[in-house]
Each structure stands twice: as C-alpha cells, then as structure tokens.
C-alpha cells in the first residue's frame, strides 16, 4: 500500500534585495536581482537574473538593444511581460518574442548573438518589461552544440489555483500533472505566477533542491517575512513544500532546481568550471570559433 508523503515546509534562508540599476546596451534598463559571485551554491543551478523595466520607451527609428556578443557554458531564458524582443545568433536561432513568450537559448559550446527591441515595437513605443535568467549547465553539457527554443505563450500550460487564488504558467518542470514545454538539461522548475490570496498556499517542491521566489510586482509574505517589488526569497534545500503565507496582486517567478555541485568560474559572458576553460573560451571567441553574425 502506498502511503501519503508527509509535507515538510522549506524554511526561508534569506531575502536578496537589488541595489541600483544599470543599462545593458541602450535598450534594457535592468536590476540584477541575484547573481552567482556571492550566492553560488545557494541558487544553483541558476546563475543570475536581470529584471528589465518596467520602462516606457517613446517611438523611435533607432535600434535599441545589445549588439553582437558571445556566450559559453550556460543558458539564457528571456520572458517577456510587455514589449517585443528580436533575437539572432550564430547557430541559426532567432525570432521575435512578445508578451507571454519565452526564448530559451542554450549557448553551451559557444555562440554569438544580438538582442534588440523589435522594429515594430521601437516604431510604436510603449511599455517594456522582461526578465532574463541565466541557467548553468553541468560540465558534460558545456561543450555540447548550441540550441534555441522559441516558446510561444500558447504553448505554456496554465494552472488555476482553487478559490481564485491565482495562476501559474508552467514554463519548465511540472505542476499537478501539467508539464512545461521547455527542454532542460537538469531537473528544474520555472513557473510564472500571478497570486492574490489571504490564506496560505502550498506548492510541491523537490526535497534537496534549491528554491526561490522572485517578486516582480505586488507583495507577498513567506515564513512571516514580507517581500516587496524586485526582491527575492531564497529557501533552504530541506523540505518538499514551499508555503506562501499570503499575496496581494503579486507577479512572481518560482525557480527551483537540483544543485549542480560543480565549481563555478565565470568571466563576463562565459561560465565554466576552471580558469583554463575561461581562457580557452576567450581565445576561441577571439579566433571566431563561436561564429559571427552576417
């Protein structure tokens, strides 16, 4: 006979608050909400999250964004909340994503790419808001061929919580039998959530995995601690349940995954396991081995 699993709630580890903002290129005013240099094992397999906007751009004929630049050793996940982004890379990936869409780019052995506001969005102007998440790759996949996944909003299953408590879009991972469309190299969850509830909401999370809640707007309370806009709640690995005490008009991301337990050595757009691999990445890029954009 199968016995019911006993729920154990993950305890709050810490709150990460961003300090200041900066521009990435001329199109993305961002706040870095967490990053691996000071959090490393606490956030693994995730490396970094930049929150761009919300900002209002006037109509322009100018090309706004970031020109050709390289990546190796990890994946970038871009989620658009408003506006449009056009991507192009040296491995043949590319396209335009808009509200609700996701771009999952696996740099792996290396590529160069560019990201700009779409021509149509730049021409009409308007509100722009997106996040870009960096996901680390295990050593065995850091030299694999690059891959590009363009995920439209229509492909993402939506879970409705009881009593109007909110929704969760399952980009990666599984919730109540619904599977996200993103193909991942390690077990992880990426859920785009909207919550508004006064009673505790419990979510199933794998015991031993790192977990965090990234609050983009609104407010919520976890483990008796209040979170505000652009703050991140980090949780202990022990426990198979994540509890949100209450939430008010909250837009947030739930990120959870199996820690890699491998060395992290990074330099700018490269994240590898050793300093030698970083030097090799720089040399390969300089020699054009990661390709070029026409």
Question: Care to describe what's here?
Answer:
With 294 residues, the chain is mostly beta strands. Helices cover 7% and strands 52% of the residues. It contains three helices and 25 strands. Strands 1, 13, 14, 17, 19, 20, 21 and 23 form an eight-stranded antiparallel sheet that branches. It is globular and about 55 Å long. The N and C termini lie far apart (62 Å).
What is the topological layout?
Elements: E1 12-17, E2 22-24, E3 28-35, H1 36-39, E4 46-57, E5 65-71, E6 74-82, E7 85-89, E8 94-97, E9 102-106, E10 111-117, H2 119-124, E11 126-136, E12 147-151, E13 158-161, E14 166-172, E15 174-175, E16 178-179, E17 188-197, E18 201-204, E19 210-222, E20 225-227, E21 231-235, E22 241-244, E23 246-257, E24 265-267, E25 270-272, H3 275-286
Antiparallel strand pairs: 1-21, 2-3, 3-4, 4-11, 5-10, 6-9, 6-11, 7-8, 7-10, 9-12, 13-14, 14-17, 15-16, 17-23, 18-22, 19-20, 19-21, 19-23, 24-25
The number of helices is 3
Q: Termini, distance in Å?
A: 62 Å
Cα-based radius of gyration, to the nearest Å: 19 Å
* Elements, N to C (H/E): EEEHEEEEEEEHEEEEEEEEEEEEEEEH
Describe the biggest sheet?
A: 8 strands, antiparallel
* Whole-number mean pLDDT: 96
Keywords:
52% strand, 3 helices, mainly beta, 294 residues, eight-stranded antiparallel beta sheet, seven-stranded antiparallel beta sheet, globular
């Amino acid at each position: 006979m199968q016995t019911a699993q006993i729920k154990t709630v993950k305890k709050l580890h810490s709150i990460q608050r961003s300090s200041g903002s900066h521009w990435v290129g001329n199109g993305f005013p961002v706040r870095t909400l967490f990053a691996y240099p000071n959090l490393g094992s606490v956030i693994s397999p995730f490396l970094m999250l930049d929150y761009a906007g919300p900002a209002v751009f006037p109509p322009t004929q100018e090309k706004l964004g970031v020109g050709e630049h390289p990546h190796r050793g990890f994946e970038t996940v871009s989620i658009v909340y408003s506006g449009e982004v056009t991507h192009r890379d040296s491995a043949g990936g590319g396209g335009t994503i808009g509200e609700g869409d996701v771009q999952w780019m696996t740099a792996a052995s290396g590529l160069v790419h560019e990201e700009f506001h779409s021509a149509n969005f730049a021409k009409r102007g308007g509100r722009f808001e997106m996040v870009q998440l960096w996901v680390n790759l295990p050593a065995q996949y850091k030299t694999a061929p690059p891959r590009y996944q363009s995920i439209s909003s229509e492909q993402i299953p939506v879970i409705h919580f009881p009593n109007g408590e909110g929704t969760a879009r399952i980009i990666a991972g599984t919730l109540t039998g619904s599977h996200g469309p993103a193909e991942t190299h390690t077990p992880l969850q990426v859920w785009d959530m909207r919550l508004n509830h006064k009673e505790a909401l419990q979510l199933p999370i794998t015991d031993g995995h790192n977990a965090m809640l990234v609050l983009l707007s609104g407010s919520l309370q976890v483990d008796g601690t209040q979170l505000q806009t652009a703050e991140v709640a980090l949780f202990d690995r022990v426990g198979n349940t994540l509890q949100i005490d209450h939430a008010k008009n909250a837009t947030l991301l739930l990120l959870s995954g199996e820690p890699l337990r491998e060395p992290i050595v990074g330099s700018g757009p490269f994240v590898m396991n050793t300093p030698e691999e970083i030097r090799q990445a720089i040399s390969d890029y300089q020699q054009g081995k990661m390709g070029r954009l026409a």
